[in-house]
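Sanity check record (used in CI):
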Amino acid sequence: MNAYTSMVAVGDSFTEGMSDFRPDGTCRGWADLVAERLAADTPGFAYANLAIRGKLIRQIVDEQVDTAAAMRPDLVTFAGGMNDVMRPACDMDALTARVRYAIRTLAGTARTVVLFRVIDPTRRMRGATRLLPRITRLLALVDELAVEHDAVVVDLFSSRVFDSPGLWAPDRIHLNTEGHRRVAEATLRALGVPPAFDWDTPLPADTIRRRDRAAADLRWARAHAGPWIARRLTGQSSGDGRVPKRPELDPFG
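Expected output for Lysophospholipase L1:
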């Protein structure tokens, strides 16, 4: 395992840590867990997390990438693009160009870049199959850039464990605490950190009755799907007005 002295995390809600909440209501998430583990092995380890929920790839590039590169961290993680992919008018050519720019920029100053093969939503979310061509293109781009820049890849797409509802928050879009714990362990394993547990171990089968599932679907549509659609129609984002939770590369703690 390489010894890292600093880490910067770039991205959207996945990296901010949405739905893994501390008692004070702030987000923790997989990136904080990775930083905590690396800090335990390296006194003075510094960490910044620039990710903000709801950000599109254009916003991630414009608002986070150059800032992260200027910090010159040993380790930088990049995850983004799925908010674009989920929108009907997604321009995949523009998305691809911006991701290329982001990784080229980050790789120019960081010793190690971590990329993610996104979680497969098609077995878990109704209607997500229509997104598969875009997701497949995004996966191919990650694989290509990993080779080009000698990046570390965390392959979440190939794992079936994330099909389990037990790893997702009530909104069905964001990972819950256990889901983030699994991603953190997968990331640490990809970085060569000795395993703490088997992150890919399946959860017990979901035995919810069909009638109960239908009622849960209705509650989800009212509480989460409806507001999400409304924000898309009005051009709003859950990240509007928010600032990064750890904007500076400071000692972890």
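The first helix runs from residue 13 to 16. If this sentence no longer matches the regenerated tokens, the check is flagged for review.
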